[in-house]
């Protein structure tokens, strides 16, 4: 998530474009890129405002990697020096010892010209950025970090379902995850209306799919659900008004609203969501869209814990033998 949005992005008077992650090294069992899986070696840096970083937060919780992969959380408001560790004592990350995330980027590549984005994984011994490749980070947490998973961790990327997960995840990315940004940062009417149409066409298709099944792929939570959830949970708070995706609210689609509440109430999902960070970031950082910086008081959040009745469709959050994660560590609890 860069200064004006998640991932690496380009803005201005030209069409919105999301560029590829620049640092795509992988942390694997074999360590082909020089980064072997190792407990305690790496630090995951996130913004709780960012949907791409939220994927990694959810995966880490579900898989029980809290003790193996430490967590740094940045202030939801950046300045022109990038994401800041102002939430920590002395305004420094207590593990990395840095005040700004760009310091880890600079340690990897001097005068790197791109945006400083989250999620980012940093090598603790050297302070060097390892990767900001947000699509691959969660896949590797699910498949390469298995030796460090908690007992009862779910399989979020089952091999037999990977083709279907990949296909639906690509549709979700193109039309929903990225679609809301294309609408929100559109600089002309036609560009905006095309993105708006894509968003709601895909949401309607997803609503139809989820009307008869509890989860997107198979009978249990997978990577596909994580990728959709992080946009849906932000929809009414920021995308409906701030990004002009206002045909209807999430709460006005009975299927998607129940589906998102079902996930929100599953340990590992809702306990990673910080609505205050989300609203503070979008409404105060996106000054081109909201020049006053006024943060809306709503929406009402009381409905998130109401019954969803999705269990009537069959399926369970976790497959037999898998269990929910325990409570988050005290230092990571959102209050």
Structure description:
The chain is an alpha+beta fold and 335 residues long. The chain folds into two domains: 141 residues, Glutaredoxin (3-Layer(aba) Sandwich); 173 residues, Up-down Bundle (Glutathione S-transferase Yfyf (Class Pi), Chain A, domain 2), CATH 1.20.1050.10. It is 33% helix and 7% strand. The protein has ten helices and six strands. The strands form two sheets. It has a four-stranded mixed β-sheet with strand order 4-3-5-6, with helices on both faces. A two-stranded antiparallel sheet has the order 1-2. A hairpin with a 6-residue loop joins β1 and β2. α1 crosses α7, α4 packs antiparallel against α6 and α4 packs parallel to α7. The protein is globular, with a radius of gyration of 19 Å. The N terminus is likely disordered. GO terms for molecular function: glutathione transferase activity. This is Putative glutathione S-transferase. Pfam families: GST_C_2. It comes from Streptomyces zhaozhouensis. One of its GO terms (cellular component) is cytoplasm.
- Label the overall shape: globular
Low-confidence region ranges: 1-14
Classified by CATH, the class of the largest domain is: Mainly Alpha
Helix content: 25-40%
Number of domains: 2
Strand coverage percent: 5-15%
The succession of helices and strands, N to C, reads EEEHEHEEHHHHHHHH
What integer is the average pLDDT? Answer: 94
Tell me about the largest β-sheet: 4 strands, mixed
Assign the structural class, choosing from mainly alpha, mainly beta, alpha/beta, alpha+beta, or little secondary structure.
alpha+beta
- Order of strands, main sheet, comes to 4-3-5-6
CATH topology of the largest domain: Glutathione S-transferase Yfyf (Class Pi), Chain A, domain 2
By DSSP, the count of extended strands is 6
> What value does the Rg take, in angstroms?
19 Å
In the CATH hierarchy, the architecture of the largest domain is: Up-down Bundle
Task: Please report the distance between the alpha carbons of the first and last residues.
Answer: 23 Å
Helix count equals 10
């Amino acid at each position: 998530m860069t200064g004006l949005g998640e991932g690496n992005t380009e803005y201005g008077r030209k069409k919105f474009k999301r560029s590829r992650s620049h640092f795509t090294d992988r942390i694997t069992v074999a360590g082909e890129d020089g980064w072997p899986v190792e407990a305690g070696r790496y630090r995951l840096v996130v913004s709780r405002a960012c949907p791409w970083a939220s994927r990694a937060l959810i995966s880490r919780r579900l898989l029980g990697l809290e003790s193996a992969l430490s967590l740094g959380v940045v202030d939801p408001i950046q300045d022109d020096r990038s994401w800041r560790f102002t939430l920590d004592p002395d305004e420094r990350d207590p593990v990395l010892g840095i005040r700004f995330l760009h310091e880890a980027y600079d340690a990897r590549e001097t005068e790197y010209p791109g945006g400083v984005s989250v999620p980012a994984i940093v090598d603790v011994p050297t302070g060097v950025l390892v990767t900001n490749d947000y699509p691959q980070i969660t896949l590797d947490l699910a498949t390469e970090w298995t030796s460090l998973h908690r007992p009862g961790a779910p399989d979020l990327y089952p091999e037999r379902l990977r083709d279907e997960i990949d296909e639906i995840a690509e549709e979700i990315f193109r039309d929903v995850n990225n679609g809301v940004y294309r609408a929100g940062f559109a600089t002309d009417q036609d560009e905006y209306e095309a993105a708006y149409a894509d968003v709601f066409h895909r949401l309607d298709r997803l609503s139809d799919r989820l009307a008869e099944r509890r989860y997107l792929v198979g009978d249990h939570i997978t990577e596909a659900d994580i990728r959709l959830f992080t946009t849906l949970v932000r929809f009414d708070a920021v995308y409906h008004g701030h990004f002009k995706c206002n045909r209807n609210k999430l709460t006005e689609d009975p299927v998607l609203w129940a589906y998102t509440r079902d996930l929100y109430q599953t340990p590992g999902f809702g306990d990673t969501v910080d609505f205050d960070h989300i609203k503070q970031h979008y409404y105060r950082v996106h000054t081109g869209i909201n020049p006053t910086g006024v943060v809306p008081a709503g929406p009402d959040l009381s409905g998130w814990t109401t019954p969803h009745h999705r269990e009537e469709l069959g399926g369970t959050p976790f497959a037999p033998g898998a269990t929910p994660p325990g409570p988050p560590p005290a230092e990571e609890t959102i209050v």
